[in-house]
């Protein structure tokens, strides 16, 4: 579908403050390209509330965003909450460094701001799906639940603001990753701690030779105990994973990674001819106990549940969410449109 419209069409250009501070020249060039073709109203919202008001009052103006992936996620989330995604496509002019604009480019946006601005003028509309959780949080690209302590784990126990901190829960600028949560002490460590407290309570000084002997004995006991404990297969957490009613993992086999993303959105080059919306998500489940390697399948819905009285954290569009005890993500096909360059 062509995105080209009549000359002088009213367009609302929303500029992320971060983009303006990072590369004001690219913002100016994009504005000039758009201004030569459309009647442009340019807004720089300084808060999430101001952005929400701007989007709700845009009327029939075509929407163009100049900013990074975080700004794109905010705009799509708010439009979803306002039931405004069906009113017209979103134009994105990526401005940001490196990983800050990976998502926009994976969805099909042009890499250079000037090319992305030209695509808004004469490109086409690519139909895309969304992953939406039960509390309304959207995922444009993909979600990821790594095993505790595994590579890339940096979620910690950051609480979801408002309704659980998922990126869809009204994210704020500058949201960062918190540290990895401390490991729980094992039973042996707890027994040692209680013994130390008891000895300290008695207040009886020990001769240095006895203390040295006790230290050596404790070290030997810990070595033997470590040899008797079952070997661990690596990082993982107990999760129940279901996709379209099919059980993929149970609580008895620690999961090292759960990942899901919109089928057709990876490697988004190819313009509107590319399949950006299959109505399904790609799912990958990895566990050390899986003899045939990671499970890969397509489904419309995935539900992840933690063990009894436990919760898990996750990454959605590379932003932290959780902890939650259970979360379900469902594909909403053809939920929104993105203006992209035409296929070469």
* CATH fold call of the largest domain: Tumour Suppressor Smad4
Number of strands: 16
What is the CATH top level name of the largest domain? Mainly Beta
Helical fraction equals: 25-40%
Number of domains: 2
Query: So how many helices?
Result: 9
Structural class: alpha+beta
> What is the correct CATH architecture of the largest domain?
Sandwich
GO molecular function: kinase activity
Protein name: Diacylglycerol kinase family protein
Region (Disordered): 151-186
Domain DAGKc: 45-128
Compile the SSE list and pairings.
Layout: E1 9-15, H1 17-22, H2 24-35, E2 38-43, H3 48-56, E3 62-67, H4 69-81, E4 90-94, H5 102-106, H6 113-122, E5 124-133, E6 138-139, E7 142-146, H7 161-164, H8 187-202, H9 208-228, E8 239-243, E9 246-249, E10 255-262, E11 281-287, E12 295-299, E13 301-306, E14 312-316, E15 319-324, E16 326-340
Parallel strand pairs: 1-2, 1-3, 3-4, 4-16
Antiparallel strand pairs: 5-6, 5-16, 7-10, 7-14, 8-9, 8-13, 10-11, 11-12, 13-16, 14-15
Helix pairs in contact: 2-6, 3-4
């Amino acid at each position: 579908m062509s995105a080209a419209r009549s000359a002088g069409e009213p367009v609302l250009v929303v500029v992320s403050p971060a983009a303006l501070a990072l590369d004001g020249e690219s913002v100016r060039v994009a504005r000039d390209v758009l201004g030569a073709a459309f009647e442009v109203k340019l807004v720089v919202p300084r808060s999430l509330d101001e952005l929400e008001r701007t989007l709700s009052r845009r009327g029939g103006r075509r929407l163009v965003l100049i900013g990074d992936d975080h700004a794109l996620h905010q705009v799509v989330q708010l439009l979803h909450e306002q039931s405004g995604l069906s009113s017209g496509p979103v134009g994105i002019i990526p401005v940001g460094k490196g990983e800050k604009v990976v998502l926009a480019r994976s969805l099909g946006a042009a890499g250079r701001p000037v090319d992305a601005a030209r695509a808004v003028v004469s490109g086409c509309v690519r139909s895309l799906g969304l992953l939406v959780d039960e509390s309304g949080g959207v995922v444009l690209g993909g979600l990821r639940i790594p095993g505790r302590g595994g590579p890339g784990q940096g979620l910690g126990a950051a609480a979801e603001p408002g309704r659980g901190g998922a990126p869809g829960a009204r994210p704020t600028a500058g949201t960062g990753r918190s540290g990895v949560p401390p490991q729980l002490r094992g039973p042996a460590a707890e027994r040692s701690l209680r013994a130390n407290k008891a000895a300290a309570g008695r207040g009886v000084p020990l001769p240095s030779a006895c203390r040295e002997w006790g230290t050596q004995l404790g070290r030997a006991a810990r070595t033997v105990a470590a040899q008797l404990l079952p070997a661990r297969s690596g990082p993982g957490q107990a999760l129940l994973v279901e996709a379209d009613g099919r059980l993929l993992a149970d609580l008895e086999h620690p999961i090292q990674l759960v990942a899901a993303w919109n089928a057709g959105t990876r490697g988004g080059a190819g313009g509107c001819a590319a399949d950006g919306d299959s109505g399904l998500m790609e799912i990958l489940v990895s566990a050390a106990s899986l003899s045939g390697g990671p499970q890969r399948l397509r489904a419309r819905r995935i539900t992840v549940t933690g063990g009894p009285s436990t919760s898990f954290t996750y990454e959605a569009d590379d932003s932290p969410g959780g902890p939650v005890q259970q979360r379900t993500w469902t594909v909403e096909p053809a939920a929104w449109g993105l203006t992209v360059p035409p296929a070469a």
